[in-house]
């Protein structure tokens, strides 16, 4: 089970921190303070972090806040052929899946 693996790996705590950055920032995406709060939650500079998303608007806002960006295509997100297949903004990495992103980051 995925949550069990997260707990065993110790990464669950990190994901919980990220999940609550909107509360930390007392605001919502796409405002820069939300992205900066996510980086700050880990004592990192924005350029040391990466926003991974399937939505151009999220990626553009994160890049404007200084984060690195990765686009993951979700072509069927809103129904067959109804999702974004390419980033509508400049990104650092563009991939078809999280596994492909992991491989790209390891290279």
Automatic annotation (TrEMBL):
SUPFAM superfamilies on file: HAD-like
Keywords: Hydrolase
Gene Ontology MF terms: hydrolase activity
Protein name in UniProt: Haloacid dehalogenase
One Pfam family hit: Hydrolase_like
Domain of life assignment: Bacteria
């Amino acid at each position: 089970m995925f949550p069990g693996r997260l707990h065993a790996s110790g990464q669950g705590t990190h994901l919980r921190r990220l999940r609550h950055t909107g509360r930390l920032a007392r605001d919502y995406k796409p405002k820069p303070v939300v992205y900066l709060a996510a980086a700050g939650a880990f004592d990192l500079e924005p350029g040391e972090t990466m926003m991974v998303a399937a939505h151009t608007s999220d990626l553009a806002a994160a890049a404007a806040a200084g984060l690195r960006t990765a686009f993951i295509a979700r072509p069927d997100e809103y129904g067959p052929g109804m999702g974004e297949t390419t980033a509508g903004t400049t990104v650092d990495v563009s991939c078809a899946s999280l596994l492909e992103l992991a491989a790209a980051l390891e290279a």
